[in-house]
Amino acid sequence: MSAPTLDRPAAPDEAALQAQFDATIAADHRIEPRDWMPEAYRKGLVRQIAQHAHSEIIGMQPEGDWLLAAPSLRRKAILLAKVQDEAGHGMYLYSAAETLGADRADLTDKLIERKQKYSSIFNYPTLTYADVGVIGWLVDGAAICNQVPLCRSSYGPYARAMIRVCKEESFHQRQGYELLMTMMRGTDGQRAMVQDAVDRWWWPSLMMFGPPDDDSPNSAQSMAWGVKRHSNDELRQRFVDMTVPQAAVLGVTLPDPELALDPDTGRYRFGAIDWTEFKQVLAGNGPCNDERIARRRAARDDNAWVTEAATAYAGKHA
Ligand SMILES: [Fe+2]
Ligand SMILES: [Fe+2]
Fold first, then answer.
1. How far is the CA of 94 from the centre of ligand 1 (A)?
2. pLDDT tens digits for 43-84?
3. Nearest CA to 132 among 185, 209, 68, 186?
4. Nearest Cα to 275, choosing from 204, 199, 201, 196?
5. Which residue of 29, 97, 236, 239 sits 20 to 30 Å from the alpha carbon of 17, by its own alpha carbon?
6. Helix 156-184 vs helix 232-250: angle between axes, to the nearest 10 degrees?
7. How far is the CA of 284 from the centre of ligand 1 (A)?
């Protein structure tokens, strides 16, 4: 090793860098893109942020299916704004992944080749317009529970992206609830549509928090690194506690006969989740997995000329 000179000090060794990283995490400060980080931290974050970005982009599809069939101009404008927001969330998150050295086109390829995952929830079909309301209420509601703690995630760009994303998710949740409230004040047929959508989406919404804590391989390390702040089961419980009173106000029944308030804890007990279904959907065997990936593939391939043209144009003006 050469002696340090005035203009080029010797690089600190790995142990010193690791100690500095550990101290930053312990002090609850942020890791920024130029900071040294362990390779496993970087890889884990790329995996999590890419999965999150893919979920936002694939998540445009189930609701996007209703853009042309929205029942009024007002509903169409609201839904269009919401679906555009999800595109924005995806772009934000891909940018955050790029600060870690990932390549956006490569991440999209990995999604299409099924080498990276996205949230299981978006593999269920939207059968009626009530599904748009229930997705806003339950799916965006679950996303908020998951994402609010990520605003304090140890990786700076991810945490900052989450602040804006959460504000928009909050709007999504309210628009869904408002839509359902309107339908519940409507006809018997509309109330039945809402109940049917709740019946279909409730359990998949609970699965959004991921496997139970004792079956969640990445959770412990992710929590030690301050990327994740609460366990899957803890967040799931928080969501149930938040949602049960909202269901009562709405006048719908959640499809779980075991759902009951535990007087000792003040929290709601709920029935067993069908983890076999969850694993099947994650493995690619859900009702809409093939359709979702096929459409994403078509969007990439059919629009490749736009990317090429935009890149050529930007190159000329660089
Ligand atoms: Fe989103
Ligand atoms: Fe959303």
1. 13
2. 999 999 999 999 999 999 999 999 999 999 999 999 999 999
3. 68
4. 204
5. 97
6. 20
7. 22
